[in-house]
Automatic annotation (TrEMBL):
Protein's name according to its UniProt entry: diguanylate cyclase
Family annotation (Pfam families): GGDEF
Annotated TM spans: 7-23, 35-52, 59-77, 89-107, 119-143, 163-185, 212-230
Annotated source species: Litoribacillus peritrichatus
Cross-referenced Gene3D superfamilies: 3.30.70.270
Length: 411
């Protein structure tokens, strides 16, 4: 399912497919060009609406950037790049779009309807509008600059070949922007698409000589952002925000699609309320994340879910009860053996002071704790049609595990 794929993987697939279309399907694209062009604009409007609905200002700005660039290419760059005005605009777009994308990625997060977003748009639109207004004058100066011989080949000497149309300077510039984009993503996962948008721009400008390159890449960019927003909406609906596991709604849909043979397991963190009261909810959240990560590694084809609170569930489609017990026991043991280090609230903020204190009194600044889980498992038996009945049986067995002393698997 495409919504479960990693965003960068989806984007790379779309970019590769777009390249294949440009290289091998020129005649097909020629026959569908009008539809292709207007589909891009339609998808642009749709993606903007989705961005506003889910309050994703960065991607709304991305749409504006790519849409403006496509309009300029279609109306100003349908001429040979040997013309000074075309080369000026080409170089300016090559610099303007990635820098603008980096700008909107690092500005403070504000609601999409906040006046600050309009200010950001003015900041990145002003240089472009200025170049468009003064394009003729800049082109004359640019021609004189090239004729003087003072222009460095590194930036201004283009390679019009079957492989790319660009210059050494543009290639180096995009490599730097891509590196910055990847660095930003490392610190902010919300910017996942930034490197992809920069890569898409680089591919477009370096394959500019191919027929319909701008139309195909424009549509590809719209698709990348649109699919990403759909993935985000899917995650909001089906994934638990704290643990990253599928939530109860996803589990209910999975239950409805089960066949005649399956096993369900319910599990609960032992004494979790007491743990929360002792160490606080922040530590409790860390415990839930740890438990979720171990449950997420379950084998045997099990599908893990966060049922709610400190309760989790695993669905084993097509598995009899006996086939699942070893995998449930593995999960229980992994959680029991995990040692979690709790940092005390009075630990120094400064790293240097923290290292000194840890070197002197490690035991006083940290505490190691562990948690356990109880598991109840039930298999669908002949005559049971509703998976919720099997789930209730697993829940009953879970309470038997609690009464049996906890930290065990009952079935």
């Amino acid at each position: 399912m495409i919504f479960r794929l990693k965003p960068y993987l989806t984007g790379l697939v779309i970019i590769i497919f777009a390249q294949w279309l440009l290289e091998t399907q020129t005649e097909t694209l020629r026959g569908w060009f009008d539809l292709l062009k207007w589909s891009g604009y339609g998808l642009l409007v749709l993606t903007l609406v989705v961005s506003v609905h889910f309050n994703r200002p960065v991607y709304a700005h991305f749409m504006v950037l790519v849409g403006i660039q496509y309009y300029l290419i279609q109306n100003f760059l349908q001429v040979p790049l040997s013309e000074p005005s075309a080369q000026v605009l080409y170089l300016w777009l090559a610099i303007w779009l990635p820098l603008s994308a980096l700008l909107v990625s690092v500005v403070p997060a504000k609601p999409i309807k906040h006046w600050f977003q309009a200010l950001v748009a003015c900041v990145y639109l002003a240089p472009l509008l200025g170049v468009i207004a003064l394009l003729d004058s800049i082109s004359v100066w640019y021609s004189e600059f090239l004729a003087s011989g003072a222009a460095p080949d590194l930036l201004f000497q283009f390679w019009p070949s079957d492989w790319l149309v660009s210059s050494v300077g543009v290639v180096i510039f995009y490599l730097m922007c891509l590196l910055i984009g990847l660095t930003l993503v490392r610190f902010n996962k919300a910017l996942t698409l930034l490197p992809l948008m920069i890569l898409l721009q680089a591919v477009l400008l370096m394959r500019f000589h191919l027929t319909f390159a701008s139309a195909v890449m424009f549509l590809a960019g719209m698709l990348i952002v649109f699919v990403y927003l759909l993935q985000q909406s899917w995650q909001l609906v089906y994934l638990d925000e704290l643990t990253g596991l599928p939530g109860r709604r996803a589990m209910n849909e999975t239950l409805q699609g089960l066949g005649r043979r399956y096993t369900l397991a319910m599990m609960d963190v032992d004494h979790f309320k007491k743990f929360n009261d002792t160490y606080g909810h922040d530590i409790g959240d860390q415990v839930l994340k740890m438990v979720a990560s171990r449950i997420g590694e379950v084998g045997g084809g099990g599908k893990p879910f966060r049922y709610g609170g400190e309760e989790f569930a695993i669905v084993f489609p097509g598995k009899a009860l006996g086939e699942t017990l070893v995998h449930l026991e593995t999960v229980r043991t992994a959680i029991e053996n995990y040692q979690m280090t709790i940092r005390q609230p009075d630990r120094p903020e400064d790293n240097v002071e923290g290292k000194k204190k840890r070197a002197v009194k490690v035991a006083e600044s940290t505490k190691v704790v562990s948690v356990t889980i109880s598991i109840g498992a039930a298999e669908r038996v002949q005559g049971e049609k509703d998976p919720n009945d099997v789930l209730k049986n697993a829940d009953k067995v879970l309470y038997q595990a609690k009464e049996a002393g906890r930290n065990c698997v009952c079935y």
